[in-house]
Structure formats: structure tokens, C-alpha cells
Design a protein that fits this description.
With 200 residues, this protein is an alpha/beta fold. It has one domain: Aminopeptidase. It contains five helices and nine strands, in the order βαββαββββαβαβα. A hairpin with a 2-residue loop joins β2 and β3. It is globular. The N and C termini lie close together (10 Å).
Amino acid sequence: MKVLVTGFEPFGGEKVNPALEAIKLLPKEIKGAQVVVKELPTVFGKSLDLLFKAIEEEKPDVVISVGQAGGRYAISVERVAINVDDARIPDNEGNQPVDQPIFPDGENAYFSTLPIKRIVEAIKKEGIPAEISNTAGTYVCNHVMYGLLYYASKKRPEMKAGFIHVPYLFEQVVDKKNTPAMGLSEIVKALTVAIEQSIQ
């Protein structure tokens, strides 16, 4: 059993991305499953090229992509990705698509194939806030979630796949008044639990 976990580089003027910092600290093995981590650029198109290459090289049984959702207070396990890129801010290479389909031949939306409710309940049992989210946005996070599920539906239907958003780290909100944040160790624990639930 192999799990591929991806996290994005910092974007939007931030010095760190909690998704990337957390996946770097994941154990190499969880309940007998090998855990492979991969950094993705916060760039439309290029992020999916690297993700698809990693899937082809690693042939994972489960793929969990992780992204930062600044302003959310809980670990957000995403339910659905939609077929649209609509960027509020440019990505890290200056791309800012507006109302563009991600894959013109894709479905309007794809649902996560991770056990999302079980993941949320298991994280909450660890004393960490968690919830199901019904929007992954329209930025690079949704782009990657949609692309991942599109790829799985076309080429690897047996592969479980989905996306988890994580809050800011405490260091990111020092100058962001009344903005929720979470400790890195709690994010790592939550992702570990998500992997445990996904390989059952």
C-alpha cells in the first residue's frame, strides 16, 4: 500500500505554506503503508503536470493533496471539486484565469473518493477541529483536486483520491487580527489520521 501526499509552495505573499510544512513531517510509513510526499508549485497547469508525473512514477493506492485555506479554523476535508479556474489573485507565475474550464471534456464536478466523514470524525476524536467542506474554491487548490479526480476517473478508477485544506500556522497570523490558526503538530496529526482512515 502506498500513499502519495502533496503540498503547495507558499503563495499570496506568505513565507510558508502550512500544507507543505506539515507533509514534510509525516512519517515515512503509517500502519504499514508507505508515505511519499511531493511539493507542488502554486501554478495553474504546472501543478497538475507534476502531480500526474508523480502518480505515474509512484503508482499510489491513495492520493491526498493538501492546501492552505487561510481564515478557516478547522481541518477542512473537501467533498467536491468543480471544473472551473477563476483566480482572485495571480498564481506564482502570474497566471490569473477567469471562468476557464480545467478540462473541457471533464464532468462539471467530481466528488472525493476518500472516506471524508470517517476522516472528520477521527480527527475530531483527537481533539482537533475538523469539518467537511463543500467548496475547494476556484484557485489552484480546486484546480489540483479537480485534476486529480479527473485523472483518477479516466486512468486509475481504483485509486482513492481527495483534498484537505488546513488553516494558517500561528506564525502566519501574528499581524492578521482575529484570524484563526492551528499548530503545525496538530496539522501533522490530523493528516496522519486522514491517511490512517484512507488506507482501511
